[in-house]
Write a structure and sequence with these properties.
The complex is a heterodimer of chains A (114) and B (114). Chain A is mainly β and 114 residues long. Chain A contains no helices and 11 strands. Chain A starts with a strand and ends with a strand. Classes of the chains: A mainly beta (114), B mainly beta (114).
Chain lengths: 114, 114
Amino acid sequence: DTGVSQNPRHKITKRGQNVTFRCDPISEHNRLYWYRQTLGQGPEFLTYFQNEAQLEKSRLLSDRFSAERPKGSFSTLEIQRTEQGDSAMYLCASSLGGGVAEAFFGQGTRLTVV
Amino acid sequence: KNQVEQSPQSLIILEGKNCTLQCNYTVSPFSNLRWYKQDTGRGPVSLTIMTFSENTKSNGRYTATLDADTKQSSLHITASQLSDSASYICVVSASTSGTYKYIFGTGTRLKVLA
């Protein structure tokens, strides 16, 4: 499978714990995006990278959230001191450039904070 | 404020029938508009991408239209099938100095009944 891969698919964690998600984009895709989606809502933009540079962060990305893409390939999204409000589906997408370049989404990581 | 609104919120139709989903947007500067299909618990999958100059684009039984003057788009599904049951999300891309931002609608949840 050469699509966007996200791991884990599901994560249940206790409030206050830290979690880390991984996204492997389609190889050669220079842009990588993270989105958060709650039930019944469309995805909300969190951040995006062009190669290894993080070019934009949403105000939704509080100090507890950090994303990295150290070598311009895979990316990680870490949430520290998780809160129940962090429960959501976290989606990763990648594209080759911007504009009309198609963005391909991964299957997402569903986080449940108990 | 950049916004994408979709209607109806949800729709139930019988198999074989046609339906039309609506998307209104206030996004500037406009780059392109996409329709995605999202099955429950999965990432969105692209159906169509249209730029400012395109009025209509088809992908099998899916036909999208775009009126850039009124800032409206529609997605028409012909001869619906059970597998069309999903959320359909309208996404408008804004471009500023080479930076692309995707604004998602909240989606229309379509249920096709046998």
